[in-house]
Amino acid sequence: MANIILGEKREEVKDGDNIRAACEELGVPFGCKKGVCGACKIIIEEGEDNLGPLTAKEEEMEDRDETHRLACQATIKSGTVTIKVETVDDEEDKEIDEHYLDEETSED
In Å, how far are 43, 81, 106 from 76, measured between CA atoms? Predict the structure, then answer.
């Protein structure tokens, strides 16, 4: 059995299964559950190698990579994956960081 960890909570997932049900139990917010809305975007803090490859829907995401996944789409191969729910604050922090990086680069 594989494990998904969010904060202090842990849910077991059968090896090879989609992680959606476990993430729902852990409190990840969901919208469409079909990979369209992006409400269930999670950040993989540890164990990204334990997840299956990006799905076609995940490939369409703007910030697609192995550490930003859709909980409704991702499957777990085995092992443990530690996640964090992507929040509006995370997006704002990212935009602020990118803004300051752009300013620093342009001043050089």
Answer: 14, 8, 42
Q: Could you identify the residue written with the tokens 């849910």?
A: 11
Cβ contact 4:19 at 8 Å: yes
Half-sphere exposure of 34 (CA within 13 A, CB side): 2
pLDDT digits (tens, 9 = 90+) for 3-46: 999 999 999 999 999 999 999 999 999 999 999 999 999 999 99
Q: Which domains does the chain have, with CATH numbers?
A: 2-107 (3.10.20.30)
Is residue 27 within 8 Å of 40, Cβ to Cβ? no
107: left (phi over 0), alpha (psi -120 to 50) or beta: alpha
